[in-house]
Amino acid sequence: MSDQMQFIVEKLNQEPFRKNYNLITFDSLESMQLLQLLSDVLGEIDPKHAVDIREELPEQTAKRMLTFLGILKYKPPGSISDLSAFRQGLVTGSKPVIHPVLHWLLQRTNELKKRAYLARFLVRLEVPAEFLQDDTVADIYRQYEALMEAFKNLHKECEQIKTSGLSTAEIRRDISAMEEEKDQLVKRVERLKKKVETVQNHQRMLEITRQLRLEKEREESLAQQKQEQKNQLFHAEQRLQRAQLQFKEMQRAVVDAKPESLMKKLEEEMNFNSYLVTEKIPRELESKKNSVYFLQKVVAEPAMSQSDLSVLEVKINEVNTEINQLIEKRMMKYEPVDSKFSIYRQQASIISRKKEAKAEELQAAKEEMSRAERQMLQKTSQAHELEGSDVLKGDEFKHYVNKLRSKNTFYKKKRLEIAEITAEYGILQRTEELLKQCHEALQQQLQAIEDKKGISGYSYTQEELERVSAVKSEMDEMKGRTLDNMSEMVKKLNAVVAEKKASLAPVIKELRQLRQRCQELTQECDEKRIQYDSCAAGLESNRSVLEQEVKGLLEECVQEESNYRYINCMKRSLEIQLQRAKEEMKAYISPDPQEKRRAMREQYTRMILEQENLGKKLREKQKVVRESHGPNMKQIKMWQDLEQLMECKRECFQKQQNQTPIGQVIQEGGKDRLVL
């Protein structure tokens, strides 16, 4: 505890607080001063909380501090049951509560400043679910969430840039270095221009080199286009392989198929899809909507403690037991043991569950099959990328294995050669180290001799002069080669241009003839196209008429089919009603009293008698209430008057007590009075 107080005092005495506390003065602070100090520390983290607590109510202060500590994710010491004590201590300014909060805040001020800054933009506004039903409010809330996600991404990018190690000083140094390199390159270009100006026909040579550069760039772009077209061709081949595979599968499915089997298969798929659309998916969608609705209700409610949760669990258990009891009572009352409908209901529920399970299994099998097909296509494409051909089978695979074995033996031989070369390399490396040591020893001896003769540095200077002369000769030779290469390149280009002109002359002559032929063919193509368009328009009109007729017949067929199904359904319902009427008549005329009791007429008769008896009792009760209404109201009025009378007596007694003079002493059981 003393270490904690010492740390708090040290932090408060530093910037930006500068409180000049010691342990005694800090420990003697009152509750209001402690709360103000805590508010100042919170105001340093977030300027919005830099307020004077004397200007706001204690409840507002406690609520503000608790909310902000929750945003900063402060966890008070102790268990969950101590939260109420923590809130009470924060309201009253208790030292055991305020000191740990101050210690926690002052330990991580910078981190909490960042968290408070982010909380201004990332703490979600709680909008009730019923307000979100409005389209305008829902759109604005979605925009709000999108902006929040954008802020998160921008903040992450900013933090990455800050932690990437790139500082402004390094960027400035890089910019200055690049500017120096730019100046050097400009000077170098100017020097080269001056040197080139002395050469004859330098403008033409520059123009030719420019054209050469443009041609090289064009060649690079063409190579890039070629690569892109290769990629497109590869993707197109993959699509073609997938289409061929699907076509083969369809061919295999249609080889031994008949129209009846195909229709049966289509009907099965249609029934399965209709089951998914009409029963399974709507039920799942409804359950998802219910779960989302309940979750939204839970989110909209305020935060609950563990005690609230335990109370809710107890209530849920009680409601579940009550529901089970009601279900048992209902089953005992309306569903006898020997009822046949219970068996049918059980069978129907079992069949529906089996149907749902099989539908889920079928859906999972279809997904697994599609996943396997995608994996097979992926593996096939990978095999094409690696080998450039299909998967090997039979003799081709054996030949491929033999080829791999020969390559393996060749690999082992080369590996032995590499091992020998590696050993020889180690020997040569050791020899190089020994020669370097000998060279260093000779250099030291030569240095000692030069020092003795008084010409130290002579060998180094001589080596530098030789190196500089060698570099100069290389530069001169390079310049000469460059000029020779440029002149040779110009000659070659001129020769190539002349050769191309000579070779293109007959081609140009043929091209003129072909252009004339192309014009004739284009004119003929236009005439044929006009004829084709007129014929296609007539056929299209006939096709549209036929399509309308077919569409009308199909609609008529669908209408007749729906009428047929509707009549069948009505027939079944009438048969069921007729069967019920027969069973009711049979039960009614049966001599067996048990059978008669099961008849609907007897049941409704009993219910009518029960309701008539209940109505008779209620009318009698109403009559009694009407008769006793007047006396009861009089009695209520008398009690109210008595209450007013007693209230009046109480007020009179209080006034008499207040009017009694101060200093009178009333003695019980005597007649004397003493008045001061």
From TrEMBL:
InterPro entries, alphabetized: IFT81, IFT81_CH, IFT81_N_sf
Gene: Ift81
Chief subcellular location: cytoplasm
Phylogenetic lineage: Eukaryota, Metazoa, Chordata, Craniata, Vertebrata
Places the protein is found: Cytoplasm, Cytoskeleton, Cilium basal body
UniProt entry keywords in alphabetical sequence: Acetylation, Cell projection, Cilium, Cilium biogenesis/degradation, Coiled coil, Cytoplasm, Cytoskeleton, Differentiation, Phosphoprotein, Spermatogenesis
Name this protein carries in UniProt: Intraflagellar transport protein 81 homolog
Keyword match Coiled coil: yes
GO biological process: cell differentiation; cilium assembly; intraciliary transport; spermatogenesis
